[in-house]
Amino acid sequence: MKMNRSVLFSFALLTGYGLLKPSVNFAQIAPKSPVTGYSNLVLNEEFTGASLDTTRWIAGFPWGTCQTGNAYTDYCPNNVKVANGMLELAVTGPGSNGKTKGGVISTRQIWNYVYAEASIKMPPGNGLWANFWTDRPKAWPPEIDIAEYIGSIPNAINLTSHYSTPTSAHEYVYHRHPTGANLSSGFHTYGLEWTTQELTFFVDGKRVKSFTGAAVPKDAMSFILRAGTGSLQWGGAIQNTRFPSVMYTDYVRVWKKGSSSTTTALPGTPPTISPGAPPAPIRTSPLATTNALSNLKVTLAESIHPNYVGKKASFSLTVTNAGKATFTGSLGVSVSVNGKYYGVAPLQSVTLPPGKTAKFKSGSTRGLPTIPFTLEAKVYNEKMKVGPTATFAIAD
Question: Whole-model pTM above 0.70?
Answer without folding.
Answer: no
